[in-house]
Design a protein that fits this description.
Number of helices: 13
Number of strands: 19
Number of domains: 2
Strand content: 15-25%
Largest sheet: 9 strands, mixed
Shape: globular
Structural class: alpha/beta
CATH topology of the largest domain: Adenylosuccinate Synthetase, Chain A, domain 3
């Protein structure tokens, strides 16, 4: 186990090296927003570098919920906030978020890269049309148009932030793009649409006027900050296994969610950037796709209710299951985590027994014929993953309310054993344990 482990020195002061990337180690919804908010206090810059407004976070302060889907979670610390080119923006959503914080006296010091692509109404219409066309094989998209915005970006037909703030360029692009997208939605997918070039131009030109003051070269700003040894914090969206390549394809997002994506998405040369993986004390996912440790019994419902496991953006109930070490070992290999943060440990309070998946076996035609060779990571073939069956280690639960605990030594013995096992198996030090929704409900190590 690495030096500085929380279990070797309980008085060890929280020390996290910068620059730092924060990555969800599961299927998203791990509580990244709270951890970014916590670590942003030490940072000079907070950079969101991937995803769109389908990645929601909620920070709780003085019992008030601060919903975030585009603004970096460092906004409450009034740090320099940057949206890098790997992000896609729904301008109406971003403006609403900025106004939300301005009304509460929070200064929003924001820079948006000109290369950022803009989510348009026809992206949302395409999203809904294709999901309807897929039927039972639908991906589980929120119909927010994020994937289709990335598709246009990769096909070199996107509307970028630099276009949004230039009315003349915006109008010319829309004259070409809107009729094309309308024909695609109606002709290919057979869905009626009321898309209007004039209405879209009117609305989006106004958005451009409101957001123009935030235009700036994020790549250059971040590189200068790094060369000056400023403490830059990179906030990743979604989770490791929603990665468009290494996730549970095709039930993924359209972006890279692993740590290495930060370099092309911000515009940086390869260099040492530390990484912290956020791990929920159990596992959840939204939408379709394989989920070996999913619970279908009363315990799953109890975890969902206790954890408030409903999407920040979608409001959909999340699928809940036991912690899966196979996922986490794979995530560590893909993103090279230097540290871990365990979130929502308090949700497990009151359960008599807990389980952790230590490895998989692959089921075949019958259990008797199952491949009993243990798999320690997620297999690279998704057909194999869909046949994986979890093998568990069982732990005693605890009944005490831990939301006011601030020292590891004050956690119930059973909770300590649970955490020690995770750290020992994963060989990465745990630095933060979240024990409640409030900003200060953390054990720091």
């Amino acid at each position: 186990m690495q030096d500085g482990s929380l279990f070797k020195n309980l008085k060890f002061k929280l020390k996290i090296n910068f620059p730092l990337i924060i990555i969800g180690a599961q299927w998203g919804d791990e509580g990244k927003g709270k951890v970014v908010d916590l670590l942003a206090k030490q940072a000079t810059h907070v950079v969101r570098y991937n995803g769109g407004n389908n990645a929601g976070h909620t920070v709780v302060f003085n019992s008030e919920k601060f919903p975030l889907s585009l603004l970096p979670s460092g906004v409450l610390h009034q740090k320099k906030l940057l949206l890098a080119q790997g992000v896609v923006i729904d301008p109406a959503v971003l403006i609403k978020e900025i106004e939300f914080f301005k009304k509460r006296g929070v200064v929003v010091d924001l820079v948006i890269d000109p290369r950022v692509n803009i989510v348009m109404p026809y992206h949302k219409a395409l999203d809904a049309a294709t999901e309807a066309w897929k039927g039972k094989k639908a991906t589980g998209s929120l119909h927010l148009g994020i994937g289709y915005c990335y598709e246009d970006k990769n096909n070199r037909s996107g509307v970028r932030f630099e276009d949004l703030v230039d009315p003349k360029v915006l109008k010319e692009k829309l004259k070409t793009l809107v009729p094309l997208k309308k024909r695609q939605i109606e002709g290919v997918f057979g869905q009626k649409t009321e898309l209007s070039t004039e209405e879209i131009y009117r609305d989006y030109a106004e958005y451009g006027k409101k957001l123009k003051k935030y235009l700036g070269d994020v790549s250059a700003i971040v590189q200068k900050a790094l060369s000056c040894h400023d403490k830059v914090l990179f906030e990743g969206a979604h989770g490791t296994f929603l990665d468009g390549i290494f996730g549970t394809y095709p039930y993924t997002t359209a972006v890279y969610t692993i740590a290495g994506g930060v370099f092309p998405y911000v515009g940086l040369p390869p260099q040492k950037i530390y990484s912290l993986g956020i791990v929920k004390a159990y596992t959840t996912r939204v939408g379709n796709g394989p989920f070996p440790t999913e619970l279908f019994d009363d315990i799953g419902w109890r975890i969902r209710a206790a954890g408030g496991e409903f999407g920040t953006v979608s409001k959909r109930p999340r699928r809940c299951g036991w912690l899966d070490l196979c996922m986490l070992r794979t995530a560590i290999r893909l993103s090279g985590f230097d540290y871990l943060a365990i979130t929502k440990l308090d949700v497990l309070s009151g359960l008599q027994k807990l389980k952790i998946c230590t490895h998989y076996v692959i089921a075949t035609a019958s259990d008797a014929e199952s491949n009993k060779t243990p798999l320690k990571e997620i297999p690279s073939l998704m057909n194999d993953f869909s046949r994986c069956r979890p093998v568990y280690k069982e732990f005693k639960g605890w009944s005490a309310d831990i939301s006011r605990v601030r020292r590891f030594a004050d956690l119930p013995k059973e909770a300590q054993i649970y955490l020690k096992f995770i750290e020992k198996e994963l060989k990465v030090p745990i630095k933060i344990v979240s024990v409640g929704a409030e900003r200060n409900a953390n054990v720091l190590l």
